[in-house]
Specification:
Elements: E1 2-11, E2 14-20, E3 24-29, H1 36-48, H2 55-58, E4 65-73, E5 78-89, E6 94-104, E7 109-111, H3 117-122, H4 126-132, E8 134-135, H5 145-158, H6 165-179, H7 188-272, H8 278-305, H9 314-321, H10 324-365, H11 372-405, H12 408-450, H13 459-473, H14 475-494, H15 500-505, H16 521-552, H17 559-616, E9 623-626, E10 632-635, E11 642-643, H18 649-667, E12 675-678, H19 686-696, E13 701-706, H20 710-716, E14 722-725
Parallel strand pairs: 3-13, 3-14, 8-12, 12-13
Antiparallel strand pairs: 1-2, 1-4, 4-5, 5-6, 6-7, 9-10, 10-11
Helix pairs in contact: 6-17, 7-14, 7-16, 7-17, 8-12, 8-13, 10-11, 17-18, 19-20
Amino acid sequence: MYIEKLQINTFGKLSNLKLEFAPGVNIIEGANESGKSTLAAFIKFMFYGIPPKDRTALISWDNSGAAGTLTLNTGTHRYRIERALICTGNDTKQTWRETVQLIDLANNLPCHKGESPGELFFGVDADMFAATAFVSQIGGASTGGAKVAEGIENLLFSADETVNTQRALSKLDSARALLLHKNEKGGRLYELETECAELETKLTKALETSRDILTKEARLSDIKQNEANAKEKSDVLTKKIRQFEARTLVKLYDRMHALESKANELQAQLKTANVPNTEQLKRIQDTITRIADLKQQLAEADSRNAAPEQQRSPQLEAYLDRGGSEGISSEINASRTAARAQTAVAVVMSIFAIAALIFGLAPMIIGSKLLTIPIVVGGVLLAIAVTLFVIAAKSRSKASELDNEFDIDTLESELAEQKTAAEAAKLAALAVTDIRQRLDEALDNASREFETDARTDGALEARLAELTEQSHSTDGIKAEYEKYSALYAGMREQLSGYDEAEQRAQIDMSLDISDVDAANLTAIRREATFAAKSAASLSQHAAELERTLAGLYPTANNPTELSDRLNAAKRERTELERKHAAYKLAYDKLSEASTHLRESVAPRLAADAAELMGAVTDGKYTELGIGSELEMSAGSEGSSAHSVTLLSAGTQDAAYISLRLALTRMLYRKCTPMMIYDESFARLDDERLTRMLRLIASQEQSLVLTSNRRDGELMSTIGEYNKIVM
């Protein structure tokens, strides 16, 4: 049997991994932490699932689950194992759901539903598989101790690991002790012997007291009959009283509902009458007042807005036409500036004219001829200077006239007053517009709310009078409504302690209560009470008699019943005596067979393991001792044996693996499993590893998971193998 291929969808740190294997040796190389141990755990998961305690460590690191497939070749059939483990919930509360399916690849149909693939193919459970075919990193590990040793015995004894011979022996011994203790002072047989003696004594006493019991039972029967009659009478009268009360209450409920209906009818009339309430009347009165106020404000604003516009004086018009303060000031300044400039030029020209005249007249003074040109120039310049002096005088005169004509401060004050009057007129116009807009809005809102044309004089007052009249006309309906509402509320308060549905449910018209009315209700109540007390008194008497009988029953059982019990006890005693003898015989024989099996298996297992150990150690250790819990000792021929824990690490591992191989040859009767070695050869030297590889090469399939390339290099010197790099 060998694995052809597997696919890991998700498992631990591995995901989406496909691997193909071959018969013989498969060496899977990978660095530390590459997932080799996870791969080995996945193979075990496919055959046996994951124990609850290991789920958290082995589920996928990404999606909290584990899933994959494995294709197995048994030599005659090919199967595909599909298994998935899904975790739901949160860290506080997790829920696990595992599914497994075995597919026969000959027809692609599911088969062997409900069976564990590992137990189906190998015939052992997960613990036995892990203790034999699943060789993990050793480092001083053991083969499983007493639990594995016990499983070996069960498999060899019955071909079924679950059939536990030691447990069977224990159960046989317990069953035998349950029947009769070894000191013969306890157990079911001892109890039956005692019970037979007690029953014989009770049978004699029962015959003496049975007549007394029969007499008391007859008297008790009469008392109970009288009690039943009194109770029946009390029940009938009580039912009639309750029926009368229920029917009376239902009539009151009907009256209350009639009052409620009338009150609702009057309330509907009030609603359809559209009776204005006090708040509505107050709103219309407030609206009338507000509209009157707005009209008064509008009239006052209109009167202010109608004031005549103030006219400007001719002087102010002329002032504004000439540019106002800036224009007049500019003209005055221009005239004065021109006068100064003209005077300055006239003075200069006068100086030049005088100079020219002096220059022209100077020769005449000294007796020479006059110079005509300078005199002419001087005269012209003097004429120009005079003209400029005249023009400058006119400019100064013009500035003085403007300054005298326009009083700028007075005119500016007048202009400011006119601007203020204009602004006031604008504000008055805006006020009229605002008040008129608010008045229009108030009239429109009043028309909509009160359903009348509020713009018509007196319309709102007429509407107020109409609504007031409507309010007065409905006072009668309102008073009647309040009367019926008060009556309804009073009856509802009286009936508040009762459940109408419950009372109506109690009505039973088939019950005749014609003999019950308000006049005789009190008398019927007394009669019912008397019957109930009589029934209670008879019940008390019957209870006392029953207690007396109850005290007699344990000591005065039915003789026939006691006789039957005595005969049954004697028959059971005879049957258990035969069963006790059979248990004893079975225990002795099974114990003898178990001892013989243990004595014969241990030497054979030790011999097989020693043969394998000798092959690995090249004959250095050819003798192995196997203890009751698979503890080992090793030695060579002619030397004393020592516990393998005292030997070198490599020798310990060789002995450990040899015992594993011997166990698989002995235990796996259905088929030889594939052997899985997870870093199992790390402590073997090259020579021992070579011999170990040669040894496992004879197995149908071996999966060697290693981080050391030495395993593959040495295997290549032995023969072909399948190499996989992770």
